[in-house]
Amino acid sequence: MKHKNAADKPIGIFDSGVGGLTVLKAIHALLPNESTIYLGDTARVPYGIRSPETVTKYSLENSSFLIEKGIKLLIIACNTASAISLDVIKQTFDIPALGVIDSGARAAVNATRNGRIGVIGTETTIKSGAYRRAIQNLDESAVVFERPCPLFVPLVEEGWLDTDVTYLVATRYLAGLKQSMIDTLVLGCTHYPLLKNVITAVMEDEVTLIDSAIEKSLNIRQLLSDSDILKQDSHGTFRKYYVTDSPERFQKIGKRFLEDPIEDITKIEVTSLETAVAV
């Protein structure tokens, strides 16, 4: 793809599947003039149960693929990949790269009143301790309570956003966090914002939910503005999607995430990601 200047280049976003579409939706809402290329690695989802070595390998491959498309900014719209591989990506590629951990941590520290913060995420994200470190780097007195909620992702993927089963699962997962007297809860997986209603019902109104997608879109706008590469008009704006498996399923579920149809989508082979690594 050829672009006249840096501002016209697209933003590249990747996730293991559809969860990162919550971040993309926030970008589209706040920055409607920006072109975007979204890569959903649907053939290798979920990343949350993979080893750190495997998550890093996949993240490098995804990054290379998007960088070859001529992007101006790389967004890792996956909490697991952000927790495990953001530093390696920054060291490997000469392009601005943002994860979703730091913005969620900052929002949580700003929101809490009693200094007791909960974090829920995939097993790999929680095991990495990335949110705990990020929160306590901002406020060393903060007390962080973490809980993996692995069943939340398949529940969202199945569209079970507000069912009795989902409520029972959430009640089981969140019971310990309720007893910990947290007043702020970070939704540390990009799938989880779709379960806000159920999580709010379980945690009750005293707890503030932190959606890192919204916080991240604000960071992106600031970075693009500071770098003088903020696209100023809608001329030539496009939205492109790539997936590594089942584009029809991605379109069906993704429409639920975006509340907008997904039209320009291409299926690519995983081998094309593996060969894209230019390190």
Number of helices: 12
Low-pLDDT residue spans:
none
User: Mean pLDDT, as a whole number?
Assistant: 92
Number of strands: 10
Strand content: 15-25%
Biggest sheet descriptor: 6 strands, parallel
Rg, alpha carbons: 18 Å
* Helix proportion: 40-55%
Question: Your description of this structure?
Answer:
The protein is α/β, with parallel strands linked by helices and 279 residues long. 46% of the residues lie in helices and 16% in strands. It contains twelve helices and ten strands. It has helices at residues 21-30, 52-67, 79-92, 101-111, 123-128, 130-138, 152-157, 164-179, 196-203, 212-226, 247-258, 270-274, and strands at 11-15, 36-40, 73-76, 97-98, 116-121, 143-148, 184-187, 208-211, 239-243, 265-267. A six-stranded parallel beta sheet has the order 4-3-1-2-9-10, with helices on both faces. Strands 6-5-7-8 form a four-stranded parallel beta sheet, with helices on both faces. α11 links the parallel β9 and β10. α8 packs across α9. The protein is globular, with a radius of gyration of 18 Å. The mean pLDDT is 92.
List keywords for this structure.
279 residues, alpha/beta, six-stranded parallel β-sheet, four-stranded parallel β-sheet, 12 helices, 10 strands, 46% helix, 16% strand
